[in-house]
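Provenance

Sequences were taken from public entries as deposited. Structures were produced by running a predictor on each sequence independently, with no templates supplied. The record for Iron complex transport system permease protein from Streptomonospora salina is shown for reference.
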Amino acid sequence: MRHKRTAWLWLPLGLAVLGACMLLGVAAGAASLGPGDIAAALLSRIPFSPVGSPLSGLQESVLLELRLPRVVLGALVGGLLASAGAAYQGVFRNPLADPYLLGAAAGAGLGATLVLAFGREVLSSPGSVVPVAAFAGALAGVAAAYALGSAAGGNGTATLVLAGVAVSSFLSAAQNLVQMIRVEELRRIYSWMLGGLGTGGWDDVTMIAPYAAAGLLVLMGCGYLLDMLALGDEKALSLGLNATGVRLLVISAASLATAAAVSVSGLIGFVGIVVPHIVRRLVGTGYRMILPMSLLSGAAFLVLVDIAARTVIAPAELPLGVVTAFVGAPFFVFILRATRSRAT
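Predicted structure for Iron complex transport system permease protein:
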């Protein structure tokens, strides 16, 4: 009981760390902005605030129109991917499960590729439609995996995973075909696929906010159900839990969260694997703590990754997917070795 009471102390700590990372993210850049000046400028935007902004007009534009929306979007994307990863690992009871398991990434990639490859012929501003196309593609990929899994006559996790692999392979092949047809658009396509927040703004935050809120609300409320699933299907059934229904609910919410994140950031790997494992080592195996802490930790993690991506080779930027791969690939090997050791 003492451990359970102290475990909840991680939540305010996670909030504090996230706040510090976001403040650092807003301050980092070519234009120097101090933390005190940033706080005063934000407070000055509150109606009837007695605090005045110490920043110039140009500095306020940099803060409010460039850095702040980018940091908020990065925190939102990181939190969505980490929460979805934790949920997938709980549902499939597999530490290697990630948010792109059921065709979401392949569907998003195909949707974005189609717009980037053919959008100029029918749209005046194809770049603005890329997030919508990626979102629709991600949801279509997951829906196809569900349909294929159901048509195969199984409702278990293994059948669903195999259906997701088949759908991902098909959609990836379709994407490669489009790239071969429109070779001249390869640079733009690969730029999106490597992930990034450089073009993100308040419009992107507003666009995905309803879907992110819906997915996260469901996931945060499913911690107790995932803890029951961890006991095994027979035990969960004896406690009155419909294991199949819970899996469908959690996977749908996690897929919605993944689609929302991918639609504005491109494909950013390893966040959904790395962050939940770190959280699990800190707070234990209960999903009522893992899910909210994964949300906060994933948000802080991606904000820090984005700082590194835009400062390491400034004024140029590294793709976020490249930076997360440098961090995540060694961690993935560690997880694989640890899983094999437990199996033997």
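DSSP finds 15 helices and no strands in the chain.
The CA atoms of residues 40 and 83 lie 32 Å apart.
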